Amino acid sequence: QVYELEKDYALEVPIKYVLYTDQAGMWRIQCVSVEGKAFENRLGLPANWRGVRDEDLSKVAGIEGCTFCHASGFIGGNKSYE
Fold first, then answer.
1. Phi, psi dihedrals of residue 78, rounded to the nearest 5°
2. How far apart, in whole angstroms, are the C-alpha atoms of residue 17 and residue 44?
3. Mean predicted lDDT score pLDDT of the chain
4. What is the pLDDT of residue 51?
5. C-alpha pair distances (Å), 79 with each of 30, 37, 41, 54, 72
6. What is the dihedral angle through the alpha carbons of 42, 48, 50, 52, rounded to the nearest 10 degrees?
7. Residue among 26, 28, 71 nearest 53 (CA)
8. What are the E-state strand segments in 1-82?
9. How far is CA 45 from CA 5, 22, 73, 76, in A?
10. 36-74: per-residue pLDDT in tens?
11. Which percentage of the chain shows pLDDT scores above 70?
12. Which ranges in the chain belong to alpha helices (H)?
């Protein structure tokens, strides 16, 4: 888990996001929750991205290939890592 890695490596700055690919090969960015609080993020995705999809999100974020940002800002997707 992220919390264990932070402790093992004595990280001074907590990890705020993790990047990974889902089963379909789409890249995801997911916020790390506050330890012990599953629905409270350390840092959510920007408010102006939340609930926005596809090309509209790419324009707002300034990042090509965006697919979605959840309305609560805890997870988003993109077609590529770049």
1. -150, 155
2. 9
3. 97
4. 98
5. 15, 29, 24, 10, 20
6. -150
7. 71
8. 17-21, 27-31, 33-34, 37-41, 66-69, 75-78
9. 22, 18, 5, 8
10. 998 999 999 999 999 999 999 999 999 999 999 999 999
11. 100
12. 2-8, 54-61
